[in-house]
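Example 356.
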Amino acid sequence: MTEKKLHFGIIGFGFMGQTHAKMITDDLDYAELIAVCDANKLQLENAAQGYDTYLKADELLKDDRIDTVIIAVPNHLHLEMVKKVAAAGKDVICEKPAAMNATEFEEMQRVTEEAGVRFTIHHQRRWDKDYNIAKEVYQSGTLGKTYTIQNSLYGFNGNMHDWHVYPEFGGGMLYDWGIHLLDQMLYMVDSKLVAVYATVKNVINTDVDDYFNIQLQFENGVTGQVELGTYFLSNEDGWFERHWFLGGNEGSAKIDGFHPQGEITRTTDLLRNVPGQITMTAAGPTRSFGPAPEGRIVTEALPEVNVSHRDYFDRYYDYVTGKGELIVKPEEIHRLMKLMDAIRVSAAEHRSVSFE
Ligand SMILES: NC(=O)c1ccc[n+]([C@@H]2O[C@H](COP(=O)([O-])OP(=O)(O)OC[C@H]3O[C@@H](n4cnc5c(N)ncnc54)[C@H](O)[C@@H]3O)[C@@H](O)[C@H]2O)c1
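Predicted structure in complex with nicotinamide-adenine-dinucleotide:
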């Protein structure tokens, strides 16, 4: 049996705290869950046998058996908890969004550095399957010079609940899902981000955002777009899924769903040396938008990837045991938090914001 090297405590035993507890106890043979804590004792009734429960973070932090603490409380409490955990000399894995803004995050960096503890953020969606296919397609260069990467996520029912409906608790979809979609884009496109333009709206929620559309202009010529709507209605199967579209000068890729389907599409010689033909379409006669002439479209399968959210912890374990580097680095998350701040300025002032 593998020697247990990580001894976890979890602060906040709601949806995500319980998800972490299950992963640690069921799947991670190098880790042990020592204790969990939640201010609401009803949540502690969901604890399984084999680990302790506390009502107060301070009590959990006195437990000397714990070396690593996962923070899974609502977003506005992350800074307070990071400070407590760092002061207790324990390593910190904080849930996303790391902080409410870049200034808060800088304080987190300072306190964890001063305490000499490890510090990272739970951005497990860097190991989403559809994302890794999109990343592989883009980074392999198979599309030639990529000019657009679009990433969208649509849902039906507004889906805001509990503290997520309060701005002061860090509610809203930008903090909830936006942070994942933006982290994925920044981690994929290795280029300076020159400018950002964002639209952020409350469509059916009164106080927090439930729709956004964000354009990211990278120095290498890629335009990234992330769009999310929780009240984006369609009767189409698979609509509540994620959709990727990547366009390059040698092909396009479409990747649909978290269990992705799609393909890479290319033209044979359509892009070069083919005179415009007038085609009659429902939109009227066109030379640019008609269907491709017979035989001029070829498709290829998407690359295979083998990833899962468990990889997040496996890579963290590699880092702690000196077998690999930290994947979700504080400096990357600082850049992400600065981007979140720029998005809010852009949306409030209806203007493009220069970034780097
Ligand atoms: N990485 C992901 O995919 C992912 C998914 C969902 C949520 N999250 C993040 O996890 C965090 C928690 O979200 P959730 O959906 O689990 O919320 P939740 O409301 O289900 O759970 C939060 C828990 O924290 C407890 N709590 C509040 N104040 C506390 C305190 N002072 N001390 C101890 N416990 C306290 C609450 O009682 C509650 O049980 C958020 O930051 C959220 O953004 C991340």
